[in-house]
Amino acid sequence: MTAQQDIKADTWTVAGRTFSSRLIVGTGKYKSLEENAAAVEASGAEIVTVAVRRVNISDPNQPMLTDFIDPKKVTYLPNTAGCFTAEDAIRTLRLAREAGGWNLVKLEVLGEAKTLYPDMRETLRATGTLVKEGFEPMVYCVDDPIAAKQLEEAGAVAIMPLGAPIGSGLGIQNRVTIRLIVESAGVPVLVDAGVGTASDAAQAMELGCDGVLMNTAIAEAKEPVLMARAMKAAVESGRLAYLAGRMQKRRYADPSSPLAGLI
Amino acid sequence: MSLDGNLGIRVNGEHRRVPTGLSVAQMVNSLGLDPLRVAVERNLEIVPRSSLSEVCVEDGDDYEIVHFVGGG
After folding, report:
1. pTM for the full predicted model
2. Mutate to test the interface with B, among A32, A36, A49, A54 (most CBs of B within 10 A)
3. Do residues A79 and A70 lie in contact, with contact meaning Cβ atoms separated by under 8 Å?
């Protein structure tokens, strides 16, 4: 197989579903549904995260997300954003499954509002219950290799450690733990949260992650559609660099031109 | 039930009065919503889409009606 064919065949699989895009994008914080849809298109994402919220019964004719991003073309990944207990998260996902008919979901159980840091005790508990109920949870978690392993044992179909707090755009704070999680995981690993710009996404992919999930980095860019394109390129570049295998680092210089034949 | 024959229910935290004898699907429709595009929880239990037309609205019911919105 040529390198070109290798690249084309570079897909990843989560819970039996195969995707070629390794970028998952959120659908929150956009100025309009039109801009949101254009950014999703530019990102090339095949999966988008969505939230489950009460319908507005005083104005039932408000435009709906599904009118702009077609769930038949893009996989909707319902999340549990805003849930602070296992019970709330499970209740939310039961409703999501009824609304969309999907078992593939994103679980996040938050510990506190200031940092939106995951509560791993509740997250683990919710993962166990969801798996028993037939869900396939992709799980947002701390960048802790032991917690990641425990989630996998509990039945998580993907491990999604944070690079930095949700919405912070600070970039990957601990490359060592992300790499350790990637090395020991038997399920896909995606950096979820913390990406601020293209190089952060590339870095996640260079560490060997199967994908990257982001929302704010695109939605809060001055030009979200342009940033979506940048993120698509960054994820692809980072992935290619990982597959190519980077050079070893040296402490000092090593000339690129031959020393022999020097005049 | 009140003297006018209407039922008092709660939908997404708001009090509503609806006629007796409605199915959950009819109640959802009467709010201007498409039952195929929402999920309904009745007294903390999911009402499966397949039985929305069979389950009757009862006095004092508490409903959550949700759908997908943008989120991260």
Report:
1. 0.90
2. A54
3. no
Instruction: Give the H/E segment covering residue A12.
Output: strand A12-14
SS3 of chain B: helix, strand, coil, percent, to 5: 20, 40, 40
Start-to-end CA distance of chain B, whole Å, equals 42
pLDDT along chain A (263 residues), means of 10: 61 95 95 94 96 89 88 94 95 92 93 95 97 97 97 98 96 97 97 97 98 97 97 97 95 92 89
Closest CA–CA distance from residue A260 to any residue of chain B (Å):
57
Min Cα–Cα distance to chain B from A252, Å: 43
Is the confidence at residue B20, as pLDDT, over 50?
yes
The reply to whether residue B66 touches residue A28, judged by beta carbons under 8 angstroms, is no
A222 is catalytic: no
Q: Read off the tokens for A185.
A: 């995981």
CA dist A204 and B38 (Å) reads 36
